[in-house]
Amino acid sequence: MDDLHGKGVNVELKNVSRLFQIGGETFQALADVTLSVPAGEHWSLVGASGSGKSTLLYMMGLLERPSSGEVWIDGQRTDTLKTGERALIRNRRIGFVFQNFQLIPRTTSLENVEMPLLYQKVPFRERQERAKVLLSQVGLSDRENHFPSQLSGGQQQRVAIARALVTSPGIVLADEPTGNLDTASSKDILELLEHLRTIHRFTLILVTHDPLVASRAQRQIRLSDGRIVGGEL
Ligand code: ADP
Ligand code: MG
């Protein structure tokens, strides 16, 4: 079995812009963003709705390409790579946690967590073993065979976190991971993410609306109209 303990990875954006064409008009969702998140750090990303937080996270996670500028992961330029190569880096080095969990329905917790390893063609036994370790680390060993619909929101997000971590990613990107949770579950999920970061040592970038959550990060970046307007850069 591979070492489950990942290592934080550096992510760097150089003059990244993202334009959308909407009905003949050009809209700038990100405008000339430059930043470098050192390996293993925990940053938060704040800003009003529509300020470009998700777009920025998708750039870092290679889910989207910039209209201009460069995206570097662990010293490798990625925006110029072919789609397949980008998918490979995404699968092996990046974990995502979304506001709406994005679990596969009618698929058990264990199968959901195994899924990224299936894409890596990891053999069945090892997939199961690793998925079980992660489910235990998020406190859900007794829910391996439950379906998402049988779990609370907080439990579904725990499954999603286990799935994000099962490949030992160097970077974890979380887009308002507590946005659909009540106060108590939100606190649990954040403490879990922080705890897991101390074990797995991944770089964590967390989008949040909550100033208290944001203040727990080592650095806060504030976006407004697609630009960085604040943060201790
Ligand atoms: P946030 O996550 O901060 O709420 P987003 O990054 O989702 O903001 O969006 C930033 C801006 O870009 C918004 O005005 C949004 O409408 C626009 N936008 C995002 N994705 C698209 C898209 N695929 N097509 C057109 N406009 C988009
Ligand atoms: Mg968003």
Describe the protein's architecture and organization.
It is a single chain. The termini are far apart. The protein has 233 residues and is an alpha/beta fold. It has a single domain (2-230), classed as P-loop containing nucleotide triphosphate hydrolases (Rossmann fold, 3-Layer(aba) Sandwich). The relative contact order is 0.22. Mean pLDDT is 94; it is low at 1-5. 34% of the residues lie in helices and 27% in strands. The longest helix is centred in the C-terminal third of the chain and has 18 residues, at 183-200. Helix 4 (124-137) packs across helix 5 (153-165) and helix 5 (153-165) runs parallel beside helix 6 (183-200). The strands form two sheets. The protein has a six-stranded mixed sheet with strand order 6-7-8-3-9-10. Strands 2-1-4-5 form a four-stranded antiparallel sheet. It contains seven helices and ten strands. The site of adenosine-5'-diphosphate (ADP) has 12 residues, from strand 1, strand 2 and helix 1.
Distance between the termini: 39 Å
* Helix-strand sequence: EEEHEEHEHHHEHEHEE
The appropriate CATH architecture is 3-Layer(aba) Sandwich
Unreliable runs: 1-5
CATH class: Alpha Beta
Largest sheet: 6 strands, mixed
Strand order of the largest sheet: 6-7-8-3-9-10
- CATH fold type: Rossmann fold
Total count of domains: 1
Mean pLDDT: 94
Main structural class:
alpha/beta
State the total count of DSSP E strands: 10
How much strand content do the residues show? 25-35%
Number of helices: 7
Instruction: Characterize the overall form.
Output: globular
Q: Supply the CATH superfamily name.
A: P-loop containing nucleotide triphosphate hydrolases
* Overall radius of gyration: 17 Å
Bound molecules: adenosine-5'-diphosphate, magnesium ion
